[in-house]
Amino acid sequence: MKHYSVPGVSVAVIDGGEIAWARGYGVAEAGTSNPVTPETLFQAASISKPVAAMAALHMSRYGHFGLDDDVNQKLKSWQVPENEFTRRKPVTLRAILSHSAGLTVHGFAGYAAGEQVPTLLQVLDGVKPANSAPVRADQEPGSKWRYSGGGYTVLQQLMIDSFGKPFPDLMSIIALRQAGMASSTY
To answer: Within a 10 A sphere around the Cβ of 126, how many other Cβ atoms?
Structure first.
């Protein structure tokens, strides 16, 4: 913790699918005395992607959306803008999940406390107060691997449009509760 200037961590050891032990070390925020416990919430950042992928695969398994369907067939609030890359081959759920959809925006910087947070549609289109470029296809879907946080943002909108529920609610129902993660949220 000292080497990496980390004020606090929470560690859980899983053995045979069960939590063998869990402990918190340090403090939740530098300069405070609020200790980290096994229940302390941390930002998961990109660790949330495999959980979102699991929910998307659930959606596919139960017939809500096919892995190889054009995502624009189910997107209602927003569409991946058509261009020379998407005309040849559509963006699919399989390509999004495998980071091969040809979609831009590697990752997101986030927003400071008190700063205006954009809507999901503003993020997808790169419209202020979003602090990122718009999510667009700039290479043929399926042609090569490239990490894309933007692709998972499209997945988020796809799930919202498909189920008509807020993404945090969907993730709670489909993934987090099923895994016994009662304190976690999106």
So the answer is: 17
Q: Give 103's DSSP letter.
A: B
Contacts of 148 (CB under 8 A, 6+ apart): 96, 99, 101, 103, 104, 105, 106
- Map tokens 């997808």 to a residue: 124
pLDDT of 103-121, one tens digit each? 999 999 888 889 999 999 9
* Rg of the chain in Å (alpha carbons): 19
Q: What is the pTM assigned to this prediction? A: 0.88
Q: Which long-range contacts (CB under 8 A, 24 or more apart) does 158-161 make?
A: 158/56, 158/65, 158/71, 158/74, 158/75, 158/93, 159/55, 159/56, 159/59, 160/77, 160/120, 161/74, 161/75, 161/76, 161/77
Domain residue limits, the chain: 1-42, 45-176
**Sign of the CA dihedral with 48 first, then 114, 34, and 29 last:** positive
For domain 45-176, the CATH architecture is 3-Layer(aba) Sandwich (3.40)
- Looking at the chain, the whole-number percentage of residues with pLDDT higher than 90 is 82
What residue has token string 């943002």?
A: 153
Q: Residue 72: how many CA atoms within 13 Å on its side-chain side? A: 13
Cα separation, 80 vs 86, in Å, equals: 8
